[in-house]
TrEMBL record:
It is a multi-pass membrane protein. Pfam families: DoxX_2. Keywords: Membrane, Transmembrane, Transmembrane helix. This is DoxX family protein. The lineage of its organism: Bacteria, Bacillati, Actinomycetota, Actinomycetes, Pseudonocardiales. The chain crosses the membrane at residues 6-31, 52-79, 91-112.
Length: 113
């Protein structure tokens, strides 16, 4: 396992974990856009749980690679859905935010190969 893979994976997990905690704590800068995009409030805990599970999966993947790959693929799909949601809401200025969280996850997948 390379040092770059380990660092990128830990950074990605930390970023996604931070995002999950922000949803759970209803941080204003996270939940206001979700409401603007039309994401039902009842989905928010599930979205936070999906991010938290993905972050944990990335870390576990350092020891059990198949779990890390599954978590990374799941997170890439999650953030792809987030980009689509932002685009559908026509909040084009917000597109970089889910991409910012997806970038280290994609990088960890690339480095894993």
């Amino acid at each position: 396992m390379s040092t770059a893979y380990t660092i990128v994976t830990i950074v990605g997990a930390a970023m996604v974990g931070f995002s999950a905690v922000s949803v759970f704590l209803h941080a204003k800068w996270v939940v206001e856009p979700l409401a603007e995009y039309g994401v039902p409030r009842s989905w928010w805990p599930w979205l936070g749980t999906a991010k938290a599970a993905g972050a944990i999966g990335l870390v576990v993947g350092l020891f059990v690679p198949v779990i890390g790959v599954a978590a990374a693929v799941g997170l890439v799909l999650y953030f792809t859905g987030a980009v689509v949601t932002v685009l559908r809401a026509r909040s084009y200025a917000h597109v970089p935010f889910p991409l910012m969280y997806a970038a280290p996850v994609v990088a960890s997948l690339v480095l894993w190969i």
